[in-house]
């Protein structure tokens, strides 16, 4: 499935401070599950470590799209809602309902074609001696990149901040691997909860995390 073939999907995930805008080649249902999972993982870490107030301070807007590489991510920091909905994320009901002056956090996640995977022992290229990471497929790459970028709300782009974000990504990835069967089952099950409509409560559909 090529980019644009599934259209543009922009949805606020219920009971989460998260808006997802998917323009990638991947199906909205899968991307939404993975984004939700990574969000929950980082939120659980923020709660454990005492920075949950900062994490909950402003909504995250994840722009999930394609790349020619295996993966790329960018944390754009805080921007006004009017800037995103006017120039970057058009036709997004969740953003349109917000006060244009409201602050949101801009996150860009770019995931490549399935043929780009697996990725073995990749390291963050900007700094030396960074923790290596391996991703079996695009789903693992998505969870890791989303978690990494979300963690930047707490950590800088300097070396120590990037190390923090990389370990946060690794934690989310290990949690995802432990419940991978739940993801696979969700992908073949009939639509329910959030998958059935934007106004449906999805508490029962949220995947549970391990070691949180």
Structure commentary:
36% of the residues are buried. The strands form two sheets. The protein has a five-stranded mixed sheet. A two-stranded antiparallel sheet has the order 6-7. It starts with 8 loop residues before the first strand and ends in a 24-residue tail after the last helix. Strand 1 and strand 2 (18-22) form a beta hairpin. With 212 residues, the protein is an alpha/beta fold. It is built from seven helices and seven strands; from the N terminus they run ββααββααβββααα. Helix 5 (138-151) crosses helix 6 (159-178). Residues 1-7 and 196-212 have low confidence and may be disordered. It has one domain (9-189). It has helices at 28-49, 52-55, 81-88, 93-96, 138-151, 159-178, 180-188, and strands at 9-13, 18-22, 60-66, 71-80, 103-111, 119-122, 133-135.
């Amino acid at each position: 499935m090529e980019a644009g073939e599934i259209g543009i999907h922009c949805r606020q995930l219920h009971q989460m401070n998260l808006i997802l805008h998917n323009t990638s080649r991947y199906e909205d249902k899968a991307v939404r599950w993975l984004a939700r999972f990574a969000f929950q993982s980082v939120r659980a870490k923020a709660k454990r470590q005492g920075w949950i107030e900062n994490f909950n301070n402003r909504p995250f807007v994840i722009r999930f799209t394609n790349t020619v590489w295996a993966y790329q991510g960018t944390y754009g920091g805080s921007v006004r809602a009017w800037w995103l909905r006017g120039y970057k994320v058009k036709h997004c009901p969740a953003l349109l309902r917000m006060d244009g002056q409201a602050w949101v956090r801009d996150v860009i996640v770019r995931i490549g074609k399935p043929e780009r995977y697996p990725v073995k022992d990749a390291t963050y290229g900007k700094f030396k001696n960074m923790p290596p990471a391996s991703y079996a497929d695009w789903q693992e790459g998505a969870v890791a990149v989303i978690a990494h970028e979300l963690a930047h709300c707490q950590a800088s782009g300097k070396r120590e901040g990037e190390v923090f974000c990389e370990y946060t990504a690794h934690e989310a990835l290990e949690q995802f691997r432990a419940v991978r069967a739940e993801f696979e089952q969700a992908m073949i099950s009939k639509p329910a909860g959030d998958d059935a409509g934007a106004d449906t409560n999805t508490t029962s559909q949220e995947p549970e995390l391990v070691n949180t």
